[in-house]
Design a protein that fits this description.
alpha+beta; 49% helix; single chain; five-stranded antiparallel beta sheet; binds flavin mononucleotide; 8 helices; NADH Oxidase
């Protein structure tokens, strides 16, 4: 139990080969994500993060949007490769969309002008924390995930397709599912280059 968290840190990886097997129901997965969203810290407790969870046909629809938008800009000789990559994100259980509510940030900037420049940065930092919390929580339930960034290319179509407010800014997409193939070995920089301890 003592090293439980350490092990989880190490075992959370970017998983690209996803399947749709899980002991958990969609409702249980939603509860796990909801808990992280509730307890994730945010600047001034602003709770500016917004999350959309897509399962089933909604989830397939997201990756169809990504493909349609990529098709408009990817050269013909690269499109087959792109299609194959995007299709790997469709084989899992669902995809989580991470947003930040820009109205919340603007309100804070008006309320606390002294920190106006910081709120957009803090909002991103908090959303990153949420992404990591969820990534870790999914791994704890033996589910794999990766972090994708097809925004801003897909922003407009995503908002239309899922009827989302204009002031929700899309930051990341996290496809998740069962782990069908483990991640490759990962390299690490020497800790001496990255950490200084005094005292
Ligand atoms: C802020 C951030 C952005 C990332 N963007 C992408 C991305 O767009 N596509 C992708 O496949 N992986 C993305 N990753 C995953 C990293 O490549 C990955 O975390 C890193 O190589 C370490 O591997 P690991 O997640 O297996 O530990 C991102 C990770 C972070 C933290």
């Amino acid at each position: 139990m003592e090293n439980y968290l350490n092990k989880l840190y190490e075992e959370r990886r970017s998983i690209y080969h996803l399947g749709n097997h899980s002991r958990l129901t969609e409702q249980q997965i939603t509860e796990i994500i909801t808990l992280a969203l509730k307890f994730c810290p945010s600047a001034f407790n602003s709770q500016s993060a917004r999350v959309v969870i897509l399962y089933g046909s909604y989830y397939q629809k997201l990756w169809d949007i990504v493909l349609t938008e990529l098709d408009k800009i990817v050269p013909d000789n690269k499109i087959q490769q792109t299609k194959e990559k995007i299709n790997t994100f469709k084989t899992g259980i669902g995809t989580i969309l991470f947003f930040e509510d820009q109205n919340t940030i603007e309100n804070l900037q008006q309320q606390f002008p002294l920190y106006a420049e910081n709120f957009p940065l803090w909002s991103l930092q908090s959303n990153g924390m949420l992404q990591y919390m969820i990534w870790l929580a999914l791994k704890e339930k033996q589910l794999g995930a990766s972090l994708q960034h097809y925004n801003p290319l897909i922003d407009h179509e995503v908002k239309l397709a899922f009827d989302l407010p204009e002031h929700w800014k899309l930051l990341a997409q996290m496809p998740f599912g069962s782990i069908e193939q483990p991640a490759d070995e990962k390299s690490f920089l020497p800790m001496e280059e990255r950490l200084k301890v005094f005292g």
